[in-house]
Amino acid sequence: MQLFCRDLGYDIVFHDIDTTKHQTVYEDHSLSVETIPLDHRLPTCGYIFREKPTLPHIRRNMIEFYNIPISQINNIKSGCDWTTPEGEIIPNKRLTTPAEKPRAYAYCSDTAYIPTLHQHLKGVTTLYHEATYADDNLLMAQKYHHSTARQAAMVARDAQVGQLLLGHFSSRYGVESVLLNEAKEIFVNTSLTNEMAVFDV
Fold first, then answer.
1. Residue 10's pLDDT band (boundaries 50, 70, 90)?
2. CB under 8 Å to 8, separation ≥6 — which residues?
3. Contacts of 43 (CB under 8 A, 6+ apart)
4. How many Å apart are CA 62 and CA 85, to the nearest integer?
5. Pairing mode, if any, of strands 96-97 and 57-58?
6. Which stretches of 32-188 are DSSP H helices?
7. Which residues, in sequence order, are CB contacts of 156 under 8 Å at separation 6+?
8. What is the pTM of this model?
């Protein structure tokens, strides 16, 4: 608390996390947060933030056209068809448009390469993975429990994520494009992160 949380102007509440288990640590009606055990010199875990599926969108023009009462909208969102007073059945797909696909963001920093990590990351839209070193410092990565850019890309490839964001670069790389180029050899949709950079998850 004295080192990191002084003079913030608000309270900090700590929740202990078992860094050895993959588990859900938070959940509400729209989101879940899972931990992922990582491999670092200190107990460390990553996180996956998953949106929950939402219901289809109502096509207002069709609701008005068929004079469907508001009381039936939730039933239609849940998949029901509509039957007009004349007995015509209006299929649900004419009354709704599909919901957006749920997004998921995984944050994996401070970890050695874990060959099985991708198993926890299937279906993730965006993966942030540390890339402290390039292949020229593979032994350093192994010694200090960090990953290379190539290893981060291997995780992204094996998990079939949407995009990979690299971060946690060693200061020895004055030109970080060497890390980006190394990763793109394995996983093309890769970007370097930077302070204040914004990415579409």
1. confident
2. none
3. 19, 20
4. 15
5. antiparallel
6. 60-65, 73-77, 92-95, 138-144, 149-159, 177-184
7. 127, 129, 164, 183, 186, 187, 190
8. 0.84
